[in-house]
Design goal:
6 helices; alpha/beta; 167 residues; 19% strand
């Protein structure tokens, strides 16, 4: 389905840098199937070569970390969190902005009735606090972009800018 829906992007040779979301892991009955979801993910995005998270630098000033926010993947002490620590410790001096691109918003105004399906606990119960602590020791500004919650939000807290795109 993805190939069909994005034919116009492919024809225009647009670069697509995806972040894993919950829809990659659920079948038609909304039952999670991690292995099948990841197999499909890597089939559609072979350039990721088995990676669930990755980073890219755009020019000299922008660095982006594309993260997996599913099934507690961002929890303290986990492989992805340790990888993020290493990425931030090795930022080039020229970088002015670090974008954290993830599907689930680590913080936000969750609508009543949707709290279970959209709660930040799906990602990590302290990822926002983690980023806000890290921001105090990194010169580059942090910008967290996410979707999942079907509304728009933009705010700053403790030096970190949060954008919820609504999709």
């Amino acid at each position: 389905m993805f190939q069909r829906e994005t034919t116009i992007w492919q024809d225009a040779r647009l670069r697509i840098y995806p972040a894993l979301g919950n829809h990659e892991f659920y079948n038609r009955d909304f039952l999670p199937n991690r292995e099948r979801g990841l197999a499909n993910w890597w089939k559609v995005f072979p350039f990721l070569a088995g990676r669930r998270w990755y980073s890219l630098q755009f020019g000299r000033q922008i660095y982006a970390l594309f993260l997996d926010s599913n099934f507690g993947a961002l929890k303290k002490g986990g492989a992805q969190r340790l990888w993020i620590d290493r990425q931030l410790a090795g930022l080039p001096d020229s970088v002015n902005y670090v974008f954290f691109v993830l599907h689930h918003a680590p913080i936000g105004d969750y609508m009543e009735g949707h709290a279970h399906a959209h709660a930040p606990e799906m990602t990590a119960d302290d990822f926002d606090a983690y980023l806000e602590r890290k921001q105090q020791h990194v010169r580059a500004r942090f910008i967290v972009t996410s979707g999942h919650v079907h509304t728009y939000g933009r705010f700053e807290r403790n030096g970190v800018t949060y954008l919820i795109t609504g999709g």
